[in-house]
Amino acid sequence: MRIKNWTLPYALVYVLVWFTKQGYFTRVFRKGLSNIPKNKPVIFAANHQNSLIDPIVIATTNRYPVFFLTKSDVFKNPLIAKILFSLNMLPIYRERDGADFKEKNVAIFNRCSEILSRNGRIIIFPEGSHNTQNKLRSLKKGIARIAAQADNETQEDIWIVPVGLNYSNTRNKSADLLVSYGKAINASEIFLSKGEVKNENDLFLPLMEKIEVGLRNEMLDYSHPDFYEVYEFLLNKVRRKRTSLITKFNWNKEKNNKLTHFFEKNTTESEKIKTQVEEINSACDEFDLRPYLFQKQSQSIGLYVLGLVLGFPFAVYGFINSFIPAIIPQKLILDNIKDRQYDSSINMVLGGFLMFFFWCVQSFVVSLFTDYYLWFWYFISCVISRWFSYEYHIFYLRFRGKISYNRFVQKFPDRAKLLQNYYSELKLFITKL
């Protein structure tokens, strides 16, 4: 079995996905890479917010090939299964996959032990499924079972590294992403300290508690479900000065902990804040607005009109060169999928691959009719104009939002004034908390 060597399929996809990831997110930052043990068996334990994107962003921050477990559903087609195996994906089976799901998982666990015995790296999502919320869910014991089996079958200590995946937005492009690697946990040391135990829970529980604490330290975890929207509003929707991702994450972690304490100690005030947030969110949903608009009594649009006029020709050029690969994922796939949690994965992976493929084809056609490497400059123009056309689209949406806000203020002045006051109070509250 190959562990450290790069196979051709994995290497090609790695390079393509790395570039796609860099283009999909506005900012990507990796924190705590020094916490990953070198030349040791490592299991990455990560929170799971963004389906296929989660293993991709972890894999592309590693210098060695990484294996990861995923739902067995995608392995049903033999040809697709062969491709997935070549990309280091391993199926994990659940009860609904058949009566023999436990036996199938034994084979996969054996494979994981073999990988770890050769100082390989595996990604496991101990929550068991993905969910877009900033909330750590109950962890499954599978990761402890894999670690224990590998510990019994190799002389090396088994290390588990908690990984916090922190997205500013899990559905839309141009979000920020912070990948935070926590302090490595020596699973073998924990198992050794327990000695001989009759119940596996007595062996696994201390390790699971360590993993849970490690994950909470590296991610945002909104502890009170009843106030989830309040957490989200105050930490992500109240506009503040742009800072580095590390500074932003540390600020969010500090405020998150203070909010949790506040909600526990100040019931009446917490309910008042919750009501204010709900009223602003309700107006935003009803009139297609964004909360930050309420920080002003009215929004100026003059510069937006000028920018839209001046940028229109180049935006059209970018739109024409990217229309087909951009629209295929949406019209052929996303419109037929009810689970919106897969939007970003399909857009990033499939959309990115299709975009690159179409640009290559278009550049090849250009090369047949031109000289002096004009095809190369055409390819570069496709990349730049695609970025510009997307930013132009966002710029247009902001322009339209400002117009909608001004109309809202004119039509409902009293309600607008009330919500503006709410926004000011909420911003002051979270700033001084």
Key attributes of the depicted protein:
433 residues, alpha/beta, Glycerol-3-phosphate (1)-acyltransferase, 2 domains, 8-stranded mixed beta sheet, 14 helices
Spell out the blueprint of helices and strands:
Blueprint: H1 8-24, E1 27-31, E2 42-46, H2 53-59, E3 67-71, H3 78-86, E4 89-92, H4 101-117, E5 121-124, H5 142-153, E6 159-167, E7 176-181, E8 185-186, H6 187-194, H7 200-218, H8 228-237, H9 245-265, H10 267-287, H11 302-333, H12 343-369, H13 374-411, H14 413-432
Parallel strand pairs: 1-7, 2-5, 2-6, 3-4, 3-5
Antiparallel strand pairs: 6-7, 6-8
Q: Could you spell the SSE succession in H and E letters?
A: HEEHEHEHEHEEEHHHHHHHHH
Name of the CATH superfamily of the largest domain? Glycerol-3-phosphate (1)-acyltransferase
Q: Give me the count of strands.
A: 8
Radius of gyration: 25 Å
Count of individual domains: 2
Distance between the termini: 54 Å
Q: Give the helix/strand class.
A: alpha/beta
CATH class of the largest domain: Alpha Beta
